[in-house]
Amino acid sequence: MSFHPKMAYDASFHKSGRTLTEAGEPFAYTPENTARFESIVVRYPADRRRSAVLPALYLVQYQQGHVTANAMRYVADLLGITAADVEDVVSYYTMFHTKPVGTFVINVCRTLPCALNGAERVTEEICGKLGIKPGETDPSGTFTVVEVECLGACDRAPVVMVNDAWHECLSPEDASKLLDDLRARGEAALSGCHHVVESRRL
Amino acid sequence: MCTKGIHVVFFVSSCFRGPVMIMEPLLTKYVREPNCFTLDFYLKHEGYEGLKKALALTPDQVVEMVKASGLRGRGGAGFPTGMKWQFVDKRSPNPRYIACNADESEPGTFKDHLLMERNPHLLIEGCAIACHAIGARVAYVYIRGEFFHVQRVLERAIDEAYRAGFLGRNVFGSGFDCDVYIHRGAGAYEAGEETALLESLEGKRAQPRNKPPFPAVIGLYNCPTAVNNVETLANVPLILRNGAEWFAALGPEKNGGPKLFCISGHVKRPGVYEASMTMTLRELIEGCAGGVREGRTLKAVIPGGSSVPMLMPDQLDAQASFDGVQKAGSLLGSAGLIVLDDTACMVWLAENLLHFYRHESCGKCTPCREGTDWLHKILRRIERGEGHMRDLDLLSSISGSIGGKTLCAFGDAAITPVLTTLKHFRHEYEAHIREGRCTLPASWRARHAAGAR
Questions:
Q1: Given CA atoms A109, A115, A117, A123 in this order, what sign does their dihedral have?
Q2: Which of A92, A121, A136 is at the close of a domain?
Q3: Is B4's CB within 8 Å of A169's CB?
């Protein structure tokens, strides 16, 4: 029963809304990723292998697109920690996906400096064109749209990060064109970081 | 593409008003040159001279020199760097570490982004000198996960430095060993807090630790650690090359050296500007960044990243130094100036920033975890036009229950946008509640239409 006049704090209120991560296929690194992992883990003291959990999870994500429960167990075994330790980390950091995502994950910065320059309209345009809401993947599995917090290029707002590449000064008017461009040319459609672009201009 | 994209590194040749120290950029002098990020280019411009000089000195002499230079931490708190290094526990039997904070996530801040991408060797040299100063062997550069393009530039630069013998074993034949490793974060604002950064480096959630003990005594892997911002470490080679007096003379008293200012928001030329801290905020905004857009008037400025109180247009003659901005009633923080013109709705602004803080709260301390969510809910309600007058007192009351009651400064940062907008723009909140909508002209808000949610 509820002691609050307007809110029902019944049993369902306290149930976590979090769904369990899917187990996925049995997971193992490819030989290249094993070699990469070995080269990373030596950067940390021998008794501190746990430090390599973030790089180890990045390797998982680059290998299969998202982080499954089986992959977490695999990483846990590699580092000598528990699977719960790994899930603790995965569930905290926003850059790990625990569900399958589209080929292009479009991260639109929504924080103040970008928002002052129309970031909300950019999200609106992109989501409108794809017919999805932020956080969802379009039916073709090509695009996932995510609203993220400050990306750190506020002078070139609004900024969009597509997978690991950047697109800067994206006006709402050009947002839907960018989607077509991405479909046609892949990441070559992105402007990249303007610091680099400028030096090319000079 | 658009003119906004071009960041301008300037010489203060046409200053807006008053006598201004004319200063040549030091940190960002060559950022527009092609290949400025390569080792060859860096070596042609005094590269690694500072490290060579540092290795000829004892660690204590280097610390004394940095202390005398008046270099203050550029990450936000402005703590004197030399002092921080001096506090590193030298008697501990454990190894010591340098952790470079490259997790630049403060809204409105993008200076380290530019520095690392265009002048990575300066940071690497700074890391090596810092290692020598505190007797560390290893420096970890904790870079935010979103800066992957920056990370690749930095990785290549580190490889070059190893091959040339500036890192690795027996640097310059001095017997000094130094390794610099990059550690990539994965999207957590809180990792920018020094103890949370160390937790993240240890492979855990980026949540802050109780202090004291401070990292200088018990830091990474329970060893003495100095955590320094990218821009701070990038200033260290300059001090070694040119001397502490030269560095201190570049700025006002206790605010030595060049400073990178990030100007964003409603200005004509947003970008990173390098200047002496003798400048005033007005000179930076109107002289360097070109002032607000055509036909608009300045409404307010957030001078140090989203976490500091706003300054009104009449307060902008304050010196853009740590002490000057503090005297004006705000903080220089990370020197991310977010400029707002009259089209900005302050309720919307507070709602936007609280969405940020609610999302980024690490969840360790209850007041911040729960409080930011409540603040955001109430602000969204007011922004939608469903607020009540009593909500304004509720906002202040919740803020009072967060501020000063959390392990790190995040709690105080999160309530600042609410308190500062309430203080200066209470009438906008009241108008929202009275009218049931935003009272700014619809066309001004067209770019903020939030129909996507």
A1: positive
A2: A92
A3: yes
Gyration radius (Cα) of chain B, Å: 22
- Looking at the structure, do residues A189 and A133 belong to the same domain, yes or no? yes
The tens-digit pLDDT sequence of chain A (202 residues) is 566 777 666 666 666 666 667 788 899 999 999 999 999 999 999 999 999 999 999 999 999 999 999 999 999 999 999 999 999 999 999 999 999 999 999 999 999 999 999 999 999 999 999 999 999 999 999 999 999 999 999 999 899 999 999 999 888 888 989 999 999 998 888 888 776 655 443 3
| A63 in any annotated domain | yes
* Same domain assignment for residues A120 and A186: yes
Q: If you search the block for the tokens 């090359």, which residue do you land on? A: B241
Nearest to A92 among B205, B306, B449 (CB): B205
Residue linked to tokens 């903020």:
B448
- Asked if residue A62 and residue A41 are part of one domain, the reply reads yes
CB pair distance less than 8 Å for A200 and B34: yes
Q: What is the CATH number of the domain that holds A189?
A: 3.40.30.10
- CB spacing of B338 vs A172 below 8 angstroms: no
| Domain boundaries, position A161 | 104-201
* Residue among B382, B451, B395, B388 nearest B423 (CA): B395
**Do B117 and A150 count as a contact with CB atoms less than 8 A apart?**
no
Residue A79 lies in a domain: yes
* CATH code assigned at A48: 1.10.10
Distance CA A9, CA B299 (A): 43
> Is the residue at A1 inside a domain?
no
**B residues 353..372 contacting A (CB < 8 A):** 353, 355-356, 359-360, 362
Q: How much is the pTM?
A: 0.92
Q: Which of B141, B354, B364, B447 to mutate to test the interface with A (most CBs of A within 10 A)?
A: B447
Pick from A40, A111, A178, A181 the residue to mutate for testing the B interface (most B CBs within 10 Å).
A111
Measure the CA–CA gap between A36 and A41, rounded to whole angstroms.
9
Structure tokens at A120: 């909300």
